[in-house]
Write a structure and sequence with these properties.
The chain has 103 residues and is an alpha+beta fold. The chain is 35% helix and 19% strand.
Amino acid sequence: MTCAKTQEFLAREKIESITQVNAKKTVLSEKEALEIVSQVDEVYAAKGRKVIHLDLRKEKPDKATLRGILLGPTGNLRAPTLRIGRKLVVGFDPETYQKVFSS
């Protein structure tokens, strides 16, 4: 489970979260996911071995593109999702986590 891998990564790197939401108990819909994206400058989305990076200061992806990378098959925000300042990371990819947390 990728959420468990995320927890392991954060513990190993001694990174504490300020706010943590259980995605099984608190479901974030498409509307809420798009609202979160409106508050960030960059989005990293990991799906399998592929990582998509969007620089929202330069790119203006349409809603269909954002839905494709943010939402799971249920239509809700995929887990794990981390917000680090003005960056949003969706899915688990250890290299992306290292990059985002070290910048």
